[in-house]
Amino acid sequence: MTIRVLVADDHAAVRAGIVLILDGHHDIEVVGQAADGDQAVALALELRPDVVLMDIRMPKLDGLSATRRLSGVADVLILTTFDIDEYVFGALRAGAAGFLLKNTEADALADAVRVVARGDGLIAPAVTRRLISAFGAAVPERRPREVEGLTQREREVLACIGRGMSNAEISAELNMAEATTKTHVSRLLSKLGLRSRVQAAILAQELSGGCDRRTGE
């Protein structure tokens, strides 16, 4: 399946470079380019890409605001020069599926697009440690009522997320379709009031518990 991508960056030369990189992969197609946040939102609503590569500092509407508007429309992968904490945390709170720096190698960028298109999250290694530390302090205290509201399968999926497993790995572990895994992840995040897989992973580790292999969906 070809992954349809929209590239949003206010620098034409940067956009051209990203497009050149992605178009070199047979499974990725750049379907549109945007020079500002407003244009990114409008094109995403029109073209319905699988992934939006979004810069943060753009005119008219910044990348974080654009990301919030695209919730439920497309998966957003932030691609920026700046690894400022405010941007990292803001991107994840806005609903971004990933955060990468523009010094990422070409092949790694293409792989990141594939990861996000599969429904998994991805964070630049350079910011992962401090991100986990910061969100660890920010994750709400254990909420037994919300956790008790999860189904048995959702608890198993949560435990797997806590082990750092991707959707594909969870599907194999629990013997269910990857689309079903995505549904369980979305539902448990909603039930727990969490905004990202990072928060879910931290909460899962706090709550403890294993990921037992079972059959059924």
TrEMBL record:
<keyword id="KW-0805">Transcription regulation</keyword>
<protein>
    <submittedName>
        <fullName>DNA-binding NarL/FixJ family response regulator</fullName>
    </submittedName>
</protein>
<dbReference type="Pfam" id="PF00072">
    <property type="entry name" value="Response_reg"/>
</dbReference>
<feature type="domain" description="Response regulatory">
    <location>
        <begin position="4"/>
        <end position="117"/>
    </location>
</feature>
<feature type="modified residue" description="4-aspartylphosphate">
    <location>
        <position position="55"/>
    </location>
</feature>
<dbReference type="InterPro" id="IPR000792">
    <property type="entry name" value="Tscrpt_reg_LuxR_C"/>
</dbReference>
<dbReference type="GO" id="GO:0000160">
    <property type="term" value="P:phosphorelay signal transduction system"/>
</dbReference>
<dbReference type="InterPro" id="IPR001789">
    <property type="entry name" value="Sig_transdc_resp-reg_receiver"/>
</dbReference>
<dbReference type="InterPro" id="IPR016032">
    <property type="entry name" value="Sig_transdc_resp-reg_C-effctor"/>
</dbReference>
<keyword id="KW-0804">Transcription</keyword>
<dbReference type="GO" id="GO:0003677">
    <property type="term" value="F:DNA binding"/>
</dbReference>
<keyword id="KW-0238">DNA-binding</keyword>
<dbReference type="InterPro" id="IPR011006">
    <property type="entry name" value="CheY-like_superfamily"/>
</dbReference>
<dbReference type="GO" id="GO:0006355">
    <property type="term" value="P:regulation of DNA-templated transcription"/>
</dbReference>
<dbReference type="InterPro" id="IPR039420">
    <property type="entry name" value="WalR-like"/>
</dbReference>
<feature type="domain" description="HTH luxR-type">
    <location>
        <begin position="143"/>
        <end position="208"/>
    </location>
</feature>
<dbReference type="InterPro" id="IPR058245">
    <property type="entry name" value="NreC/VraR/RcsB-like_REC"/>
</dbReference>
<keyword id="KW-0597">Phosphoprotein</keyword>
<dbReference type="Pfam" id="PF00196">
    <property type="entry name" value="GerE"/>
</dbReference>
